[in-house]
Amino acid sequence: MDNQGYSHIPKILFDWITFLVKALPLRSVPTFIELLIGAMLTPTGFVTDAWLMVAMKRHWTSYFKWLQKGKWSWVALALQLGKLLVRWNPDKQWYLAVDDTVVFRNSKKAPSSQIHHLHGNKANRPQFVRGQCWVSLSAIIEGQKQAWSIPLISRLTRLSGNGNKLVTTGVLLRVMRSCFNGATVLMDSWYMRGALITSLQNMGYHVIGQVRKDTALYDVPQLSGKRGRPRKYGEKYTADRVTDLKEARVKTRIYGRWQSLRYRSVIAKARFLEGQLVKVVWVQFENEDGSLKPVRLLLSTETDMTGLDIIKAYAKRWSIEPMFHQLKNRWGWNETWQQSRQVLHRWIQVISTGYALVQLLAYWKESTPKEIILDVPWRKSAPVTAGLVRLKLERNLRHVAVREWWDVKSRIFKPPD
Fold first, then answer.
1. Which of 3-7, 98-102, 132-136 has the lowest mean pLDDT?
2. pLDDT digits (tens, 9 = 90+) for 234-254
3. CA 374 to CA 383: how far, in whole Å?
């Protein structure tokens, strides 16, 4: 392919890869670049398919050996990806999303393969399945019409019960806290446990999440002036007291469309947080016929936020669900297979990094329309997706010897002039 085909690829992609390879030993960089671009372009999770996607310069067994025995850290690569996001948007208030997903497996020999309960209650799905449970941490970037999750790091839970997911979450956030100090972590009701929230606050994070509707919340007690130990909690917020609170009604764009909602908010003491002051919001969404959906209770450790800001912030957490769908069904997470946890973590991190770069290019295309020419006339007015960007990159990078683009002297990755 001539150099004209490379002119349509944004230069910033090569700058990103040049920045990422700083986390790896110099000897591993060419092999990593080849596998990264191969994983970026292939829709399957097989190392051999990534090997076939670009013009590899080494025998295919060399890449398996590099994944298994290479002296490099997948955690350092994840941390470098976080540094890339912060360096690209230094003034951004970051939101991080935490959630878990199950990758189905038939074999008991797969690393951390065990029986899991599917609590989603989806049609035509069994309640219990064998698979691998992954806990993922993602950073959220906002486009003009939607929010996208960028996978930072994922980790397999060990064979020690569901409680290990909370421990895994703490480990992932501890790894990334040097990059996202002061960020807000968005979690669903399963992860909103007192010990985890307290641990994250000690790391410097803020937390927003949905909690049970029957969570014990109390007023700040009034000073009685009587002898003895002062009261820790005031009057409890019962259903009747919540109904008496002032209700606000707004229509806002949330979850990808305009919706009407009603909410009540107050600063209260949460008993499961040992009396810590939090901002709580009771919110109800309206259906198209005017009826109301069930009440959701949101909690934020930042008491100076408004109720509507908390609702909008928590809605960003939903972007991690499309991320799981893309990674599992379009980037091959479902097909990944390695014989040990370490090698599987390494390969998953390479795949996730490849997807993250393509998703960032989709955001870059939305921000600077002239940077990427997609040549898809029937999709000119449609939103730019990571899949469309990958098709464009595949057209320009398929069967290209990308190893030759790495200059070991200047340590810069770029196509030939």
1. 3-7
2. 999 999 999 999 999 999 999
3. 12
Q: Which residues contact 297 (CB under 8 A, 6 or more apart)?
A: 210, 211, 212, 213, 215, 280, 281, 282
Per DSSP (E only), the strands in 83-192 are: 95-104, 114-117, 128-142, 147-156, 184-187
Find residue 94's DSSP bridge partners: none
Cβ(33)–Cβ(407) below 8 Å = no
CA distance 295 to 300: 17
Q: pLDDT band at residue 381, thresholds of 50, 70 and 90?
A: low
Note whether 110 and 199 are within 8 A (CB). Answer: no
Query: Taking a C-beta distance cutoff of 8 angstroms, is the pair 291, 281 a contact?
Result: no
User: Mean of the per-residue pLDDT values for the chain?
Assistant: 91
Q: What is 89-111 written as a DSSP string?
A: STT---EEEEEEEEEE-S-TTST
Handedness of CA 346, 349, 351, 354 (dihedral sign): negative
Judge contact between 328 and 101, C-beta under 8 A: yes
Residue 225: which region, alpha, beta or left (left: phi > 0; alpha: psi -120 to 50)? left
The answer on pLDDT for 3 being more than 50 is: no
